[in-house]
Fold each of these.
Amino acid sequence: MATFWISGRTADPEISPGDLVATLDRIHIDVPETAGLRLLGPHVRRHLDAARGRLSRAGACGVDEPLLERAEHLAVALASTGHRSYLHGDVHPTNVVTTGTGLVLLDPKGLVGDPAYDAAVWSLKADKLMPRRAWIDLLGADYGRDRVAGWAAIVGACHAVSYAAHGKRLDRVRAYAEIAREGLAAVGA
């Protein structure tokens, strides 16, 4: 393991969607199957399974078993689109440093799959920089609006349950559950 310091500051309101897309595009390179990196599909399935396990402790978080089932169906569909890009896996403002030469992504999870997943995670976590739906729309122009919104709904459902089960940030629980319900409304109907 190596640790090093990067001079800069965490992402702030001046970050542009174009700068973020350009930074993500640099890491979203095609990965051969022999690379041995974790696939996005099983990674998301583990999060959905964890959400199911926490559901009884999550109370009235706005997410229920049928919603998680729709999220799982959508995750299978999105993960099977054939994307084999390297993903950061946890893109949010405190994992993005603004430096004199551009943006630097920190603390990658090292996944392989659909680049829209990174855009979706950013969209959910960057709410202090711009509203979540605005990020979904802006990044959706580059990664596919339906794919970004779909991944955001899946991740939002998992986060809503996790945050509620652990008694964290009720405002985020509500927001994540709302995005999950909106994004998954047509799935499995």
Amino acid sequence: MIAVYRPGSSLLHRMPAGLKVLGFMASALAITFTAGSVWTQPVAAVLVCAGYLVAGLGLREILRQVWAVRWVILIMLVTQFVFLPPVVASANTGRVVTIMVLAALITLTTRIPALLDATESSLAPLRRFGVNPAGVGLVLGMTITTIPVIAGFAATIREAQRARGVPVRITTFAVPLLVMSLKHSDDLADALTARGAG
């Protein structure tokens, strides 16, 4: 889940948004392309923990972010266990969770308008190649606001199932989540079309 900005005066809070986005991209690529190394996951985890400590957020916030994506972790693990060895499935899931927690650190220490402005500014030179920076910024903004909504859907579904005594199963959880997410997408598309953004 993409986190909400937390005001602060740490080094990460004061760092320019563009520099943080570039750092996140470089870190995500490094984690992805060095996946075969046994040191990748431990080093990445230590760096992420250090980032949260520098930002004054603490290890409890890391656990909170991991807990927020627990259903994503569960679905990833179960689906990968079907096709991959357990060690590979766990490593793949660990890398994705590390990147998600790192992304949460960026949004915890960066105001959303600054993040969107930095994205549009960095993509401006690509306009000559047909890239629409404003469009990319709009997609990023919608993503940032939609991910917490979907996480809320997941929590609502689980609470409703727990109240009815329904056991945790991928089918009974994933199908309603998919239906609610698709309905939200349709509503969002209708709203954008009504405002002339579609």
